[in-house]
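Hi support team,

I've been running sequence recovery on a batch of backbones for a student project. Most finish fine, but this one hangs at about 90% for roughly twenty minutes before it completes. I'm not sure whether the input is malformed or the queue is just slow. I've pasted the structure tokens below so you can try to reproduce it. Let me know if you need the job ID as well.

Thanks,
M.K.
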């Protein structure tokens, strides 16, 4: 692929990522989008449950499998290095878009916060979670995570630098602020339906699986630097020392 083609491909992938990310906020929080986690045609639980689990499983498998080094080594034979991350981001975005489109709501109410002020505060907490996700990506390298950095380097004929280990701001208090933000965003709901609960529970379980796989990769790349980093810095809960349960 030419450097012009790679740049266009990376930009398209990034724009789609931004659209899907913004839609995800409305989908989970329940506002400003055509279809939210609790709207749409209601079907029998016997249909909704397996369909929703299949959609989340499909995203989880794609998202985790393509992030592992053995898979990267294999598909690196076919996908240029410069657009590898953009392709990963593109397919992840399409997987999420499919989930939003085909999600079956399960509207049975688990809890409701009737007090308007408290409900607004919970919504604010959810939005704070989304802000934590986005800001945490910029603390490390948002454009490398999204693939733009790689295609820009190809466009300017610069080599990609070697991975380096550092821990800016939030990463000094918690090892995975991006995942913390997602958990807060998913669980902070003034109206928690059974469908929302299913989504929050399954994605939280996947987050912890993702942390296990990701930290194994970090240790393989950064060695003792990451092992020493893990000891005083908690996995998810800020300002608490790591425990054997989470490690």
């Amino acid at each position: 692929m030419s450097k012009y083609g790679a740049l266009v491909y990376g930009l398209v992938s990034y724009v789609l990522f931004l659209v899907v990310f913004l839609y995800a906020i409305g989908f989970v929080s329940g506002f400003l989008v055509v279809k939210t986690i609790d709207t749409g045609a209601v079907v029998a639980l016997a249909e909704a449950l397996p369909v929703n689990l299949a959609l989340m499983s499909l995203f989880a498998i794609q998202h985790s499998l393509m992030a592992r080094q053995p898979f990267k080594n294999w598909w690196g034979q076919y996908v240029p290095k410069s657009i590898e991350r953009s392709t990963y981001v593109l397919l992840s975005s399409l997987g999420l878009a499919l989930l939003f489109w085909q999600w079956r709501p399960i509207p049975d109410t688990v809890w409701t916060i009737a007090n308007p002020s408290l409900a607004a505060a919970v919504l604010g907490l959810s939005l704070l979670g989304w802000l934590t996700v986005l800001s945490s990506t910029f603390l490390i390298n948002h454009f490398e995570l999204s693939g733009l950095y790689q295609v820009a380097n190809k466009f300017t004929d610069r080599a990609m630098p070697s991975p380096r280990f550092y821990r800016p701001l939030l990463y000094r208090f918690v090892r995975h602020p991006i995942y913390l933000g997602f958990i807060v965003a998913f669980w902070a709901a003034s109206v928690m339906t059974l469908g929302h609960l299913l989504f929050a529970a399954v994605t939280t379980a996947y987050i912890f699986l993702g942390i296990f796989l990701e930290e194994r990769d970090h240790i393989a790349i950064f060695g003792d630097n990451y092992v020493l980093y893990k000891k005083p810095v908690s996995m998810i809960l800020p300002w608490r020392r790591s425990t054997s349960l989470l490690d």
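--
Follow-up from support: It reproduced on our side and the slowdown came from queue contention, not your input. The two ends are 42 Å apart (CA to CA). No action needed from you.
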